[in-house]
Design a protein that fits this description.
With about 240 residues, this protein is an alpha+beta fold. The chain is about 45% helix and about 15% strand.
Length: about 240
């Protein structure tokens, strides 16, 4: 069989000195000068037998549609990727979560929620979770996001949700409004009767606490979602 021609990365590693490796380029040129694959390689640190870390990083970016696709993968899927494993998967998840928190930490650059789709963009990872969770988007008076705490995990119904716990962080943050969101691991975002009942109770509690419940989003697979507010379910 003819030999496989070397890739650009092979050629780079074969001819480059230490100054051309990602860590050295980062020190010399700063992070903005590095390709995404090089930054991922720095996080992963090592490759596997037969695949160096740059090859591994390039493959991850290629297979999952770049950085955004990679950031949406849950832990169980990342750990099944050849060459990743649990330790590397946890490191990647930590870095992606830090990036999300940095985005929210800058008051002047907090994302503003104008439509349900804006909220779903921030909550995109929920569509891949295997367990049902509920999060709240806590908003200021201009509908800018203050925080995105997870308030429940597991099957959601009126018998397990304590309204006081759900609003605890909202009160602590002194938020003006909030948006509820939970996922359906089945992938189908169609609201259940329990979803509507929970929404009705939470909306009423928000009125008492003077915190406007703007919407309740049910998130499914493939960026599918349903806005209960748009359908008039639980908000009547």
């Amino acid at each position: 069989m003819p030999a496989t021609p070397p890739t650009p990365t092979d050629q780079l590693l074969a001819t480059a000195d230490k100054r051309d490796l990602p860590r050295e380029r980062l020190k010399r040129l700063g992070p903005a000068a590095l390709k995404t694959e090089e930054l991922i390689a720095i996080i992963l640190r090592t490759g596997t037998p037969g695949e160096n870390v740059l090859h591994l990083s390039e493959r991850l970016a290629r297979e999952f549609g770049g950085l955004l696709g990679l950031a949406r993968l849950p832990l169980n899927e990342l750990t099944r990727v050849k060459g990743v494993g649990e330790a590397k998967a946890l490191e990647l998840l930590a870095v992606f979560e830090l990036g999300r928190r940095i985005q929210l930490a800058s008051a002047g650059e907090r994302p503003a929620i104008k439509t349900p789709a804006d909220a779903v963009t921030l909550l995109a990872d929920m569509g891949t979770l295997e367990q049902e969770v509920m999060r709240t988007l806590l908003l200021d008076t201009k509908n800018r996001v203050l925080a995105m705490p997870t308030v429940y995990a597991g099957s959601l119904n009126t018998t397990v949700i304590r309204i006081s716990e759900l609003f605890r962080e909202a009160i602590r943050q002194n938020c003006a409004a909030l948006i509820l969101a939970h996922n359906h691991p089945s992938g189908d975002p169609s609201p259940s009767p329990e979803d509507v009942a929970v929404t009705r109770e939470i909306v009423q509690a928000g009125k008492i606490l003077d915190i406007d419940v703007l919407d309740h989003l049910v998130i499914g697979a493939g960026q599918k979602f349903v806005s209960l507010k748009e359908r008039g379910l639980g908000f009547g």
